[in-house]
Design goal:
This protein is an alpha/beta fold and about 230 residues long. About 25% of the residues lie in helices and about 25% in strands. It has seven helices and nine strands. About 40% of the residues are buried. Residues about 1-5 have low confidence and may be disordered.
Length: about 230
């Protein structure tokens, strides 16, 4: 494995095609510092070097000491690992992309959380066991209603927001009695469709946060805090 020579600088972009082209051009791993953690990112994985969705969620969440956390679509592992750093006790991270699974596993080990965390290859919740329950589900959802042609594009594209529908429609099965699901989204996706999916689910909105763009032409990010009905 190639060792990065420097920490990659973070930047914001709203052009998803340019972002994917940038990520495809990365043939070697790189390191990036996010939320006080130095993360190792393998090729083929959405990098927080180009995504600031984790920052929006971390600025608003409340992590109870000892919480059990499910990081759904974990990518680099940034959200789940930040939750552990904030006091959570146990993490299960899921992703459909084998490179994301390997990236998250690498970061779990590098940051010293191997005794508290595990990562599984999973299509939404498919890798969970029936008895598993979580105090928190974290989901930084893909925004754009487009067909994904490979694993990298799945981190950005969700045709007809079908992954979102599955994530919201079945979340209640995996939450504890007082559990909470955080969903990060953007106005570059179909916000009305997501609102309808929430309404059709067995979840209710406890709170919602709206983040205005911090760069010219940037997109609005939305965070929903959802509880089981």
């Amino acid at each position: 494995m190639t060792v990065p020579k420097a920490i990659s600088a973070r930047r914001q972009t709203t052009d998803v095609d340019a972002m994917i082209a940038d990520l495809r051009s990365c043939e070697h791993p790189h390191d990036v510092e996010v939320c006080g953690m130095l993360l190792h990112i393998l090729p083929g994985v959405l990098s927080p070097r180009l995504s600031h969705a984790p920052d929006a969620l971390v600025s608003k969440w409340r992590i109870q000491s000892g919480a059990t956390v499910l990081d759904l679509g974990c990518g680099s592992g940034v959200l789940g690992l930040a939750a552990l750093r904030a006091g959570a006790e146990r993490l299960v991270a899921l992703d459909i992309n084998p490179q994301a699974v390997l990236t998250t596993k690498t970061n779990i080990e590098r940051l010293g959380y191997a005794d508290q965390a595990e990562v599984r290859l999973s299509d939404v919740y498919s890798a969970l066991q029936p008895q598993e329950r979580f105090d928190l589900i974290l989901f930084a959802a893909p925004y754009w209603n487009r067909k994904a042609n490979d694993d990298l594009e799945r981190s950005c594209f969700d045709e007809d927001h079908s992954t979102m529908a599955s994530a919201l429609g079945r979340a209640h099965n995996w939450l504890t009695a007082n559990g909470l699901m955080y969903v990060v989204f953007s106005d570059q996706g179909d916000v009305g469709r997501v609102v309808n999916l929430i309404d059709e689910s067995k979840l209710r909105v406890r709170n919602m946060h709206v983040f205005r763009p911090s760069i010219e032409g940037g997109h609005i990010r939305i965070i929903w805090e959802l509880t089981a009905r």
